[in-house]
Please model this.
Amino acid sequence: MSDARPSVLVIAQSARALASAATRAGLRPLAVDFFADDDTAALGPVERVAGGFRCGFTRRNLLPAIDRLLARTGAAPTALVLGSGFEDRPRLIARLAERWPLAGCGADAVAAVKAPEGFAAACADLGIPHPPIARVVPKEGAFLVKRRAGTGGVHVRPAAPGPVPAGHYAQARVPGTPTSALVLADGRGGRVLAYSRQWADPSPDAPFRFAGVVGPVAPPPADAAIRAAADALARRFGLVGLVSLDMLVDGADWWALEVNPRPGASLDALDIVDKPLLGMHIAACRGGPVPPPAIDATIRATLVTYATADIRVPSAPVWPPHVLDRPAAGSTVSAGWPIATVVAEAADETSARRLAEERAVALKRSLGESER
Model:
């Protein structure tokens, strides 16, 4: 039986979350990513891109993968949605938008909002608190060095005094809890839909490596100021669709760190609304009116589980339903790489995060890896 659902092409480093969101929105996902995990394939056709994180998406490895997928399925996507992996590739975004109808921020908007100097200047002009940035780290004060348009936290390091490496910038360290506002933008402004909190899973060479998200959480004390900032930034940069404003919150104080101009890591945790988020994203990108959703009170935590040693996935794995991004049977997960994502729901933030962490430990033990 043919699939009558409209097809949407979703591309990300790991496209499973976008494919799941498309399914919830009544769409047929056509996924392209670096993993082709089993549960991504269960949602719809998927094509794996050669290279992986270290290589990233390029015109040479991505376009042939898309062509193979569309030739195999005979599908004509009604929309193209991009996830992680394109923050530093505006020219590739432009190339893709020439061939398929992009539902998301265009190349110029992505390049502008991900330029550290331009974002800092916009924050200064709009009166939005933002940690100072520099190309030369001063001797006084604590700074972090970050890769320009980096993602996932693996590129962030404590900075030593002196010039930063090419392609990087320094940002002053400020106190606070990593928090993210999910924003729906329409090119003329943006509306905060919900907040989530994030935490890191440090490794010896990546002390700020992304771990997990929990949400929805209560708005910070500076909610009104953050909402005004999200609206102003969306208008300044012409953002469309779902984007996230990442910040540090310390009591009544807060600092905007960056905007991720795409559906982000909170999608799995926050897509528990009366109107599916990806449907709202596409509608906003097309200029249609989008009524505010009613978000469920259930707190959901998602946690990336990393291997501390090489792991061989069993030939016939039995995955609990709370395990997502499931690697293929018989595959090998190298040390330091994600094994899978675990999900947990609870009535409060602390319980949801604790349950997710317990499930991550149980997952690693089931694959023969003990905690180290």
